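User: I'll paste a sequence; please echo it back and then give the predicted structure.

Assistant: Echoing your sequence first, then the prediction.
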Amino acid sequence: MSDAWVYVLRCRDGSLYTGWTNNLTKRLATHSVGKASRYTASRLPVELALALPMDDRSTAMREEMRIKGLSRAQKLALVEDSKSQAATEPAR
């Protein structure tokens, strides 16, 4: 299991939310009940669009900031690219 994660959520209104965590399962549960951030709480339900494992929290925070600086189109492309890569990777 990874020490840190960067994630992108797709909100009910179609907006995207980017964050990082060291416990992805717990953080997603917190978002789902409207307790993780004011932004996502007002846009429930949310769904996980992308989760990227990171080596450590400082790497995760840097990647979060990089993704937050992307345009919406670039974020959507990142999500789609991730889905494409997952579909072509062999099962383990």
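The longest strand covers residues 46-54. Residues 4-79 form a domain with the GIY-YIG endonuclease fold (CATH 3.40.1440.10).
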